[in-house]
Amino acid sequence: MNTVAAAEPPLVALAGVTKTYGSGSATFHALRGVDLEIARGEFTAIMGPSGCGKSTAMNIIGCLDQATRGSYRFRGVEITGLTRDQRARLRRRYIGFVFQGFNLLARTSAQENVELPLVYRGHGARERHAAARSALAQVGLAGWEHHTPAELSGGQLQRVAIARAIVTSPMLLLADEPTGNLDSQRSVEIMDLLVALNRERGITIVMVTHEHDMAAYAARVLRFRDGVVVGDERQPGTPRAAAAPAGAAEDDAFAARAGA
Ligand SMILES: Nc1ncnc2c1ncn2[C@@H]1O[C@H](COP(=O)(O)OP(=O)(O)OP(=O)(O)O)[C@@H](O)[C@H]1O
Ligand SMILES: [Mg+2]
Question: Domain spanning 10-102+171-258: which superfamily?
Fold first, then answer.
Protein backbone atom coordinates (compact mmCIF):
# COMPACT_ATOMS: atom_id res chain seq x y z
CA MET A 1 0.00 0.00 0.00
CA ASN A 2 2.03 2.92 1.31
CA THR A 3 5.25 1.84 -0.29
CA VAL A 4 5.87 4.72 -2.68
CA ALA A 5 7.53 7.37 -0.54
CA ALA A 6 8.88 9.31 -3.51
CA ALA A 7 5.55 11.02 -4.06
CA GLU A 8 5.69 12.62 -0.63
CA PRO A 9 5.46 16.43 -0.95
CA PRO A 10 8.10 18.60 0.73
CA LEU A 11 7.58 18.92 4.47
CA VAL A 12 7.86 22.71 4.11
CA ALA A 13 7.32 24.71 0.92
CA LEU A 14 7.27 28.51 0.90
CA ALA A 15 6.52 30.27 -2.37
CA GLY A 16 6.61 34.04 -2.77
CA VAL A 17 6.20 34.55 0.97
CA THR A 18 6.22 38.16 2.11
CA LYS A 19 5.82 39.59 5.59
CA THR A 20 5.07 43.24 6.12
CA TYR A 21 4.99 44.92 9.51
CA GLY A 22 3.19 48.21 10.15
CA SER A 23 1.44 50.34 7.55
CA GLY A 24 1.74 53.63 5.68
CA SER A 25 5.11 55.34 6.02
CA ALA A 26 6.01 52.93 8.85
CA THR A 27 5.66 49.86 6.60
CA PHE A 28 8.56 47.45 6.93
CA HIS A 29 9.09 44.53 4.58
CA ALA A 30 10.71 41.81 6.70
CA LEU A 31 10.29 39.15 3.98
CA ARG A 32 10.17 40.15 0.32
CA GLY A 33 9.34 36.94 -1.50
CA VAL A 34 10.86 33.84 0.07
CA ASP A 35 10.90 30.61 -1.94
CA LEU A 36 12.22 27.50 -0.24
CA GLU A 37 11.50 23.81 0.10
CA ILE A 38 12.61 21.49 2.88
CA ALA A 39 12.25 17.74 2.52
CA ARG A 40 11.51 15.38 5.35
CA GLY A 41 14.67 14.26 7.13
CA GLU A 42 16.81 17.26 6.18
CA PHE A 43 18.99 19.20 8.60
CA THR A 44 19.09 22.78 7.32
CA ALA A 45 20.85 25.82 8.74
CA ILE A 46 19.64 29.34 8.01
CA MET A 47 22.27 32.07 8.07
CA GLY A 48 22.24 35.77 7.32
CA PRO A 49 22.86 39.17 8.87
CA SER A 50 20.83 40.44 11.81
CA GLY A 51 17.43 41.76 10.71
CA CYS A 52 17.33 39.87 7.39
CA GLY A 53 14.16 37.99 8.35
CA LYS A 54 15.40 34.67 9.74
CA SER A 55 13.22 34.64 12.86
CA THR A 56 10.29 36.01 10.86
CA ALA A 57 10.60 33.07 8.45
CA MET A 58 10.96 30.59 11.33
CA ASN A 59 7.83 31.96 13.00
CA ILE A 60 5.88 31.51 9.77
CA ILE A 61 7.23 27.99 9.20
CA GLY A 62 6.40 27.20 12.85
CA CYS A 63 2.82 28.43 12.39
CA LEU A 64 3.32 31.05 15.10
CA ASP A 65 2.76 33.81 12.57
CA GLN A 66 1.23 34.15 9.13
CA ALA A 67 2.63 35.37 5.85
CA THR A 68 1.27 38.64 4.48
CA ARG A 69 1.29 37.20 0.95
CA GLY A 70 2.37 34.01 -0.74
CA SER A 71 1.91 30.35 -0.08
CA TYR A 72 3.09 28.11 2.75
CA ARG A 73 2.44 24.43 2.26
CA PHE A 74 3.15 21.99 5.07
CA ARG A 75 3.15 18.40 3.78
CA GLY A 76 1.39 19.66 0.70
CA VAL A 77 -1.39 21.42 2.59
CA GLU A 78 -1.87 25.17 2.29
CA ILE A 79 -1.43 26.83 5.69
CA THR A 80 -2.05 30.41 4.67
CA GLY A 81 -5.67 31.17 5.45
CA LEU A 82 -6.05 28.65 8.27
CA THR A 83 -7.50 30.07 11.46
CA ARG A 84 -5.32 30.71 14.50
CA ASP A 85 -6.83 27.63 16.13
CA GLN A 86 -6.13 25.40 13.16
CA ARG A 87 -2.55 26.60 13.06
CA ALA A 88 -2.17 26.01 16.79
CA ARG A 89 -3.40 22.45 16.39
CA LEU A 90 -1.03 21.84 13.52
CA ARG A 91 1.87 23.26 15.52
CA ARG A 92 1.13 21.10 18.57
CA ARG A 93 0.85 17.99 16.46
CA TYR A 94 3.89 18.33 14.20
CA ILE A 95 6.28 21.07 15.27
CA GLY A 96 8.72 21.65 18.11
CA PHE A 97 10.15 25.14 18.59
CA VAL A 98 13.35 26.14 20.38
CA PHE A 99 13.19 29.91 20.71
CA GLN A 100 15.90 32.56 20.44
CA GLY A 101 16.39 32.79 24.24
CA PHE A 102 14.97 29.88 26.18
CA ASN A 103 11.39 30.95 26.98
CA LEU A 104 11.19 28.66 30.01
CA LEU A 105 8.85 29.37 32.93
CA ALA A 106 11.02 30.67 35.76
CA ARG A 107 9.68 29.21 38.98
CA THR A 108 8.75 25.95 37.33
CA SER A 109 10.79 22.75 37.36
CA ALA A 110 12.47 21.36 34.26
CA GLN A 111 10.00 18.49 34.36
CA GLU A 112 6.96 20.80 34.38
CA ASN A 113 8.40 23.02 31.66
CA VAL A 114 8.86 19.99 29.42
CA GLU A 115 5.35 18.69 30.23
CA LEU A 116 3.67 21.91 29.12
CA PRO A 117 3.16 21.06 25.41
CA LEU A 118 1.51 17.82 26.52
CA VAL A 119 -0.84 19.73 28.81
CA TYR A 120 -1.96 21.70 25.75
CA ARG A 121 -2.45 18.46 23.89
CA GLY A 122 -4.65 17.13 26.66
CA HIS A 123 -2.48 14.21 27.80
CA GLY A 124 -3.05 12.80 31.28
CA ALA A 125 -0.64 13.34 34.17
CA ARG A 126 0.91 9.89 34.19
CA GLU A 127 1.63 9.96 30.47
CA ARG A 128 3.03 13.50 30.71
CA HIS A 129 5.39 12.60 33.54
CA ALA A 130 6.75 9.60 31.68
CA ALA A 131 7.19 11.46 28.38
CA ALA A 132 8.89 14.44 30.05
CA ARG A 133 11.28 12.19 31.99
CA SER A 134 12.15 10.40 28.80
CA ALA A 135 12.70 13.64 26.86
CA LEU A 136 14.92 15.02 29.64
CA ALA A 137 16.90 11.76 29.65
CA GLN A 138 17.35 12.02 25.87
CA VAL A 139 18.97 15.44 26.26
CA GLY A 140 21.22 14.19 29.06
CA LEU A 141 19.29 15.68 31.97
CA ALA A 142 18.18 12.58 33.86
CA GLY A 143 18.29 13.49 37.54
CA TRP A 144 17.71 17.21 36.92
CA GLU A 145 13.91 17.00 36.60
CA HIS A 146 13.12 18.98 39.73
CA HIS A 147 15.55 21.85 39.22
CA THR A 148 14.13 25.25 38.28
CA PRO A 149 15.75 27.39 35.54
CA ALA A 150 17.58 29.49 38.16
CA GLU A 151 19.37 26.30 39.28
CA LEU A 152 20.53 25.31 35.80
CA SER A 153 23.41 26.46 33.59
CA GLY A 154 22.95 28.00 30.13
CA GLY A 155 23.72 24.69 28.42
CA GLN A 156 21.30 22.86 30.68
CA LEU A 157 18.57 25.44 30.03
CA GLN A 158 19.03 24.97 26.30
CA ARG A 159 18.68 21.22 26.83
CA VAL A 160 15.45 21.73 28.75
CA ALA A 161 14.19 23.91 25.88
CA ILE A 162 15.08 21.14 23.40
CA ALA A 163 13.42 18.49 25.60
CA ARG A 164 10.29 20.62 25.64
CA ALA A 165 10.41 20.87 21.85
CA ILE A 166 10.82 17.11 21.29
CA VAL A 167 8.50 15.79 24.01
CA THR A 168 5.64 15.62 21.50
CA SER A 169 7.78 13.65 18.99
CA PRO A 170 7.53 16.40 16.36
CA MET A 171 8.23 15.83 12.69
CA LEU A 172 9.85 19.24 12.43
CA LEU A 173 12.15 20.87 14.97
CA LEU A 174 12.77 24.60 14.56
CA ALA A 175 15.67 26.02 16.54
CA ASP A 176 16.36 29.77 16.46
CA GLU A 177 20.00 30.29 17.44
CA PRO A 178 20.10 27.30 19.79
CA THR A 179 23.73 27.96 20.67
CA GLY A 180 23.53 31.76 20.71
CA ASN A 181 24.03 31.99 24.47
CA LEU A 182 26.49 29.14 24.94
CA ASP A 183 30.26 28.78 25.08
CA SER A 184 31.91 26.66 22.41
CA GLN A 185 32.04 23.41 24.43
CA ARG A 186 28.33 23.66 25.32
CA SER A 187 27.55 24.61 21.72
CA VAL A 188 29.23 21.47 20.36
CA GLU A 189 27.25 19.34 22.82
CA ILE A 190 23.97 20.91 21.69
CA MET A 191 24.89 20.40 18.03
CA ASP A 192 25.76 16.74 18.67
CA LEU A 193 22.34 16.38 20.27
CA LEU A 194 20.58 17.96 17.27
CA VAL A 195 22.52 15.75 14.86
CA ALA A 196 21.47 12.68 16.86
CA LEU A 197 17.81 13.74 16.82
CA ASN A 198 18.07 14.15 13.05
CA ARG A 199 19.98 10.96 12.25
CA GLU A 200 18.54 8.59 14.82
CA ARG A 201 14.98 9.80 15.14
CA GLY A 202 14.58 11.22 11.64
CA ILE A 203 13.42 14.60 12.93
CA THR A 204 13.66 17.30 10.27
CA ILE A 205 15.60 20.24 11.68
CA VAL A 206 15.76 23.87 10.65
CA MET A 207 18.22 25.88 12.71
CA VAL A 208 19.10 29.56 12.57
CA THR A 209 22.69 30.34 13.44
CA HIS A 210 25.20 33.16 13.09
CA GLU A 211 28.14 30.81 13.53
CA HIS A 212 29.80 28.99 10.64
CA ASP A 213 31.09 26.31 13.01
CA MET A 214 27.51 25.46 13.95
CA ALA A 215 26.15 25.67 10.39
CA ALA A 216 28.82 23.10 9.45
CA TYR A 217 26.77 20.43 11.27
CA ALA A 218 23.87 20.91 8.87
CA ALA A 219 23.60 19.12 5.52
CA ARG A 220 22.33 22.26 3.86
CA VAL A 221 22.79 25.99 4.39
CA LEU A 222 20.20 28.55 3.28
CA ARG A 223 21.38 32.16 3.22
CA PHE A 224 19.00 35.05 3.75
CA ARG A 225 19.65 38.69 2.92
CA ASP A 226 17.17 41.58 3.09
CA GLY A 227 14.16 39.29 3.34
CA VAL A 228 14.96 36.88 0.50
CA VAL A 229 16.91 33.64 0.08
CA VAL A 230 20.19 34.39 -1.68
CA GLY A 231 21.99 31.06 -1.27
CA ASP A 232 21.25 27.36 -0.93
CA GLU A 233 24.23 24.99 -0.54
CA ARG A 234 24.48 21.29 0.23
CA GLN A 235 27.43 20.49 2.45
CA PRO A 236 29.39 17.36 1.62
CA GLY A 237 29.95 14.78 4.34
CA THR A 238 26.72 15.54 6.16
CA PRO A 239 24.21 12.94 4.96
CA ARG A 240 20.49 13.19 5.33
CA ALA A 241 18.90 11.16 8.09
CA ALA A 242 19.88 7.57 7.40
CA ALA A 243 16.90 5.98 9.08
CA ALA A 244 13.45 6.21 7.56
CA PRO A 245 11.74 9.05 9.40
CA ALA A 246 9.49 7.82 12.18
CA GLY A 247 5.88 7.58 11.09
CA ALA A 248 6.66 8.15 7.42
CA ALA A 249 3.82 5.95 6.28
CA GLU A 250 1.32 7.04 8.88
CA ASP A 251 -2.07 7.84 7.48
CA ASP A 252 -3.02 10.54 9.92
CA ALA A 253 -5.90 12.95 10.21
CA PHE A 254 -3.88 15.75 8.68
CA ALA A 255 -3.25 13.88 5.45
CA ALA A 256 -6.86 12.75 5.39
CA ARG A 257 -8.14 16.29 5.81
CA ALA A 258 -5.78 17.41 3.10
CA GLY A 259 -7.23 14.83 0.78
CA ALA A 260 -3.71 13.44 0.34
N1 LIG B 1 6.64 42.47 15.26
C2 LIG B 1 7.40 43.27 14.50
N3 LIG B 1 7.04 44.53 14.21
C4 LIG B 1 7.79 45.33 13.42
N5 LIG B 1 8.96 44.96 12.88
C6 LIG B 1 9.38 43.72 13.14
C7 LIG B 1 8.65 42.81 13.96
N8 LIG B 1 9.33 41.63 14.03
C9 LIG B 1 10.45 41.82 13.29
N10 LIG B 1 10.48 43.06 12.76
C11 LIG B 1 11.52 43.58 11.88
O12 LIG B 1 11.68 42.70 10.79
C13 LIG B 1 13.07 42.56 10.47
C14 LIG B 1 13.46 41.10 10.49
O15 LIG B 1 13.42 40.64 11.83
P16 LIG B 1 13.86 39.18 12.25
O17 LIG B 1 13.62 39.07 13.71
O18 LIG B 1 13.20 38.20 11.37
O19 LIG B 1 15.41 39.23 11.92
P20 LIG B 1 16.53 38.12 12.16
O21 LIG B 1 17.12 37.81 10.85
O22 LIG B 1 15.97 37.01 12.96
O23 LIG B 1 17.60 38.94 13.03
P24 LIG B 1 18.55 38.45 14.25
O25 LIG B 1 19.69 37.73 13.61
O26 LIG B 1 18.97 39.75 14.87
O27 LIG B 1 17.74 37.60 15.18
C28 LIG B 1 13.84 43.40 11.48
O29 LIG B 1 14.20 44.62 10.88
C30 LIG B 1 12.86 43.62 12.59
O31 LIG B 1 13.07 44.87 13.21
MG1 LIG C 1 16.29 36.31 14.91
Answer: P-loop containing nucleotide triphosphate hydrolases (3.40.50.300)
